[in-house]
Write a structure and sequence with these properties.
This protein is mainly alpha-helical. The protein is about 60% helix and about 5% strand. It folds into two domains: about 5-45, no CATH class; about 65-190, no CATH class. The protein has five helices and four strands; from the N terminus they run H-E-E-E-E-H-H-H-H. The strands form two sheets. A two-stranded antiparallel ribbon has the order 1-2. Helix 3 (about 80-100) crosses helix 4. The protein is elongated and about 90 Å long.
Length: about 200
């Protein structure tokens, strides 16, 4: 029977004691030393999987999912805003982690939580900017259409200050403006890959 020391090793990044056969540390996702594995008398170098994840990443995603589901059960109307903010924040955190891995920096659980909190805050700010852009564009579009209607000489009916097409024009202008601003801000703040 093999001794305990021969079947275990310590992670060079966090010091967690892990099984000898693991390629990545389950706590900090650091790449453990590559080792040679005999296959039918030949030596093959085992490389880490590009799309692997650590236990702390799994816990972060599960915690986010559980908090989200609890929020949806408690207040069903918050499901769409929560998804609009949480899904891009999770994708941005993943992209930031990939960028740092390319640079040779591994993350621990605190780095992942901080990156997720930063991404959530950034998505909240971008969403707020989109809402403000929507309101401003709707206001400007509505009053601009009314002014255009008055200048063109059309007389509105006695009880109708806003013609019916003005609302559709203003909301369409607001949606286009907000979407363009949100897409631009997300593109500017997305983590860039090394080339």
């Amino acid at each position: 029977m093999a001794s305990h020391a021969a079947t275990r090793r310590r992670c060079p990044e966090c010091g967690y004691e892990t099984a000898y056969f693991l390629i990545r540390c389950p706590m900090c996702d650091a790449t453990l030393l590559e080792r040679e594995v005999p296959v039918l008398g030949e030596s093959v170098v085992v490389e880490s999987n590009r799309f692997s994840f650590s236990l702390s990443t799994l816990m972060l995603v599960l915690t986010l999912a559980c908090v989200g589901m609890g929020g949806i059960v408690a207040a069903p109307g918050l499901a769409i805003p929560l998804l609009v903010i949480a899904v891009p924040a999770l994708a941005r955190t993943w992209a930031t982690g990939r960028r740092d891995m390319q640079r040779g920096r591994s993350w621990n659980a605190a780095d992942k939580a901080a990156a997720m909190a930063l991404s959530m805050g950034l998505m909240l700010l971008i969403s707020a900017a989109g809402c403000i852009a929507f309101c401003v564009a709707c206001f400007a579009g509505c009053w601009g259409a009314v002014a255009l209607n008055e200048v063109s000489g059309r007389i509105a009916r006695q009880n109708e200050f806003f013609p019916s097409w003005v609302f559709a024009f203003a909301i369409g202008l607001g949606v286009l403006t907000a979407a363009a601003l949100v897409i631009y801000l997300m593109w500017r703040n997305w983590p860039r890959q090394e080339r």
